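About this split. The held-out portion is used to measure sequence recovery: a designer receives only the structure tokens and must propose an amino acid at every position. Recovery is the fraction of positions where the proposal matches the reference. Here is one held-out target exactly as it appears in the evaluation file.
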């Protein structure tokens, strides 16, 4: 029989990429958080939203269709407990959707949540350091008890761990992109130097003169300098 502690440990392992240690892509990571949270935290449903890059559209996930739809609409309306928690970087304690405070705070979100069968919510930011990169939203029905302090602490731990994984994945992709750019720049530089040598030898030019000839041809024909250099080195082009 799996103990509660083992269930919690299994979720953290799954969020980290499983026993193979392969990082999850953002949609899969958010989906895993949303899917595992209701069982661990004793709520009807959960939603997750995340975006490490402020220039990119946030991605959302829900443990059931209603939570997924509500998450998408909250993103469009820019309101709801997840939006507030994400902006503030602070957890939002349980709040009932049929109360005056919720209706005033979220005039579109609160009625829509009630329509979908959700009576209350609590939200927890996906934090990494002092920055919030998303939110975990717990959605309860009228029959569900409010989220306890113990469950709220666990929810925040899950959210923070997910925030760290999101950031790690973003930094890994950024590092790979930078490495590719540097490798391309180095290779381009090498082939340009080779082309300058070919032109200098072939036409009795200085290296500066060879580069001026190479650059002039590239500009005149609106081509990349490295592409022209490749053609020269491989014998497909002669600028004489």
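Reference sequence for scoring:
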């Amino acid at each position: 029989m799996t103990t509660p502690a083992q269930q919690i440990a299994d979720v953290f392992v799954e969020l980290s990429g499983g026993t193979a240690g392969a990082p999850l892509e953002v949609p899969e990571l958010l989906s895993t958080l949303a899917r595992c949270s209701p069982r661990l935290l004793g709520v009807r449903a959960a939603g997750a939203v995340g975006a490490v890059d402020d220039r990119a559209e946030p991605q959302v996930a829900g443990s059931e269709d209603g939570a997924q739809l509500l998450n998408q609409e909250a993103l469009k309306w820019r309101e709801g407990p997840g939006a507030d928690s994400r902006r503030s970087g602070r957890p939002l304690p349980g709040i009932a959707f049929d109360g005056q405070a919720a209706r005033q705070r979220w005039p579109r979100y609160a009625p829509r949540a009630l329509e979908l069968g959700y009576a209350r919510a609590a939200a927890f930011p996906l934090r990494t350091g002092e920055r919030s990169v998303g939110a975990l939203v717990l959605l309860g029905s009228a029959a569900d008890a409010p989220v306890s302090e113990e469950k709220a602490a666990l929810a925040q731990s899950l959210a923070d761990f997910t925030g760290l994984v999101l950031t790690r994945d973003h930094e890994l992709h950024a590092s790979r992109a930078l490495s590719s750019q540097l490798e391309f720049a180095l290779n381009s530089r090498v082939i340009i130097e080779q082309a300058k040598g070919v032109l200098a030898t072939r036409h009795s030019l200085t290296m500066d003169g060879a580069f001026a000839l190479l650059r002039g041809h590239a500009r005149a024909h609106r081509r990349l300098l490295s592409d022209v250099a490749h053609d020269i080195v491989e014998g497909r082009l002669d600028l004489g």
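Annotator remark: The chain is about 60% helix and 15% strand.
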